[in-house]
Write a structure and sequence with these properties.
Length: 507
């Protein structure tokens, strides 16, 4: 589970819009998506930024994939077998090729998986942390040995950074050149042109293993920081899709002819981080008071205009084993005031750190400030740039920080390891919450193969972490994207992947 926190710009250069409008007519079978997120890197192990996550699945096929029903299906592996009590996975690879026509072999798969696990610049090695060995047997068989039985591992083979790259190409050209501008692709598209900070132009990979795909000739991923500019371009017919429609415009766009705003399911959770090692929130009673003092329903309405569900636990509501029946710490001002009195913390001063360009984050911070003030906490808001945020939060230089994150799979394991398990590598999303019982249960849940027993474990984790306020869960939003009438079949999956290869462009 990774944070996706990015700045929005207040302005857009007019010439950029002109260029986009001019380019649009060049090929009518090209899907154009305007997004607030940049493509950061073409190497699937080196970036966990939102715009790059959405790209990797277009350039690199994974061992497994999710079908249209959200179920695991064959990818580069045509079949798989689990044995040895869940500790061994044998993958049978299909006859597939890279974008230059060279074969995708077992050596490429082994190289790619170990690179994710071991590379010193791997942005997200967590999905492969349980992998002990990966061995090629001939050209079409890969044997994976796990450190122990690990129920979520099969699903991890579909995570966004598990894209298969060419071992021979990376080793012969070197990493920097291999991923600079024209990486060998194993997915439905290859790079036609990359203008960093502006756009990435994709064209169909003629050697893609799924016959008949992609159902279009290519796509453009265009970086447009300003949300109103993105919407205006869609209304003008200059683009086919908008990533990140302002919540305030969802209702009006739904009424527009030729525009679809489906509000797609997501694995996102909005929350406020609390620094457990700081003096302000080291006492569980103060954390509980802070949670009880927040009217989550009012916050969700203010941010999403009623389009999100109030969060009741510390994991996203869309995940398997989400504890739907658990009430959580509901809005209760009286209880909040009583807890602050018990902790001798009435009037305690706290600092809320927020990215200055994050409109939603600022709005959440202001509401939190007002609601806490009404119940006995004095909050000061500090606005910082994105780089400073990423220094201060991991460094524990904050008291509270409204933000959001998402989970790569529907299985909760990665979510727990990122945001709740303090001993699992990310210091519980830099809250520094660290309950040994949570660590024990996280590992037990991953090893347990019985579904009912896993459910009971994850319910217990949610109850403990919510009651101890590892963070304050606020709401579960859908994706708010808008689509023009030229495209059909285009959507953003809960795992933050575009269905570009499935998309038909109407002529």
């Amino acid at each position: 589970m990774r944070l996706k926190q990015y700045a929005k710009s207040a302005m857009i250069v007019a010439s950029t819009v002109l260029i986009i409008a001019t380019d649009y007519a060049v090929a009518d079978d090209i899907i154009r998506i305007a997004s607030p997120y940049k493509v950061q890197n073409l190497d699937p192990v080196r970036s966990a930024a939102a715009g790059t996550i959405e790209l990797y699945g277009q350039l690199y096929s994974r061992v497994l994939r999710l079908d249209s029903d959200g179920k695991l299906a064959p990818g580069l592996a045509s079949s798989w077998e689990v044995s040895d009590g869940g500790k061994t996975i044998t993958l049978k690879l299909r006859n597939a090729k890279f974008s230059d026509g060279s074969p995708i072999t077992a050596d490429d798969v082994v190289f790619s998986l170990l690179r994710i696990r071991d590379h010193k610049e791997s942005a997200y090695p967590a999905p492969m942390q349980q992998l002990e060995t990966a061995t090629a047997q001939g050209t079409d068989t890969v044997v994976l040995k796990l450190k122990s039985a690990f129920a979520p591992f099969i699903g991890n083979l579909e995570v966004w950074n598990i894209g298969i790259v060419s071992k021979q190409d990376v080793e012969s050209r070197g990493e920097e050149k291999a991923f600079a501008n024209d990486p060998l692709a194993s997915g439905p598209y290859k790079v036609k042109k990359w203008l960093p900070g502006d756009r990435l132009i994709l064209e169909a990979n003629p050697y893609y293993w799924r016959k008949g795909y992609p159902k279009n000739s290519g796509a453009e991923l265009i970086h447009i920081p300003d949300e109103n500019t993105r919407v205006s371009m869609l209304l003008a017919g200059e683009i086919d899709a908008v990533r990140g429609v302002p919540w305030s415009q969802v209702a009006s766009l739904k009424k527009r002819s030729g525009i679809s705003v489906p509000l797609e399911p997501s694995t996102i959770i909005f929350m406020s981080l609390l620094n457990h090692k700081g003096e302000a929130f080291s006492d569980v009673r103060v954390r509980q008071a802070a949670a009880y003092a927040l009217n989550k329903e009012a916050i969700a309405k203010a941010i999403t205009f009623g389009n999100a569900k109030v969060a009741n636990t510390t994991i996203p509501g869309a995940l398997t084993f989400h504890h739907k029946e658990f009430p959580g710490l509901r809005y209760n001002p009286e209880k909040a005031k009583k807890l602050l009195e018990e902790a001798n913390a009435v009037g305690k001063e706290v600092v809320i750190v927020v990215v200055a360009t994050d409109t939603d984050g600022q709005k959440m911070a202001e509401i939190m400030q007002a609601q806490w003030a009404a119940n006995g906490l004095k909050a000061k808001i500090e606005k910082v740039d994105t780089g400073t945020w990423w220094k201060r939060i991991p460094g524990g230089e904050y008291d509270a920080a409204p933000t959001w994150c998402y989970n790569e799979t529907l299985d909760p394991d990665l979510a727990l390891r990122w945001a709740i398990c303090g001993a699992c590598g990310s210091k519980a999303f830099y809250t520094f919450y660290d309950n040994p019982k949570i660590t024990e249960l996280t590992e037990a849940g991953a090893r347990e193969l019985d579904i009912d027993k896993r459910r009971a474990i994850y319910h217990q984790i949610q109850e403990i972490s919510t009651n101890e306020v590892s963070q304050i869960p606020l709401f579960y939003p859908p994706y708010a994207n808008a689509y023009g009438s030229r495209v059909t079949g285009l959507t953003l999956t809960p795992a933050l992947q575009w269905t570009l290869e499935e998309t038909i462009v109407l002529k």
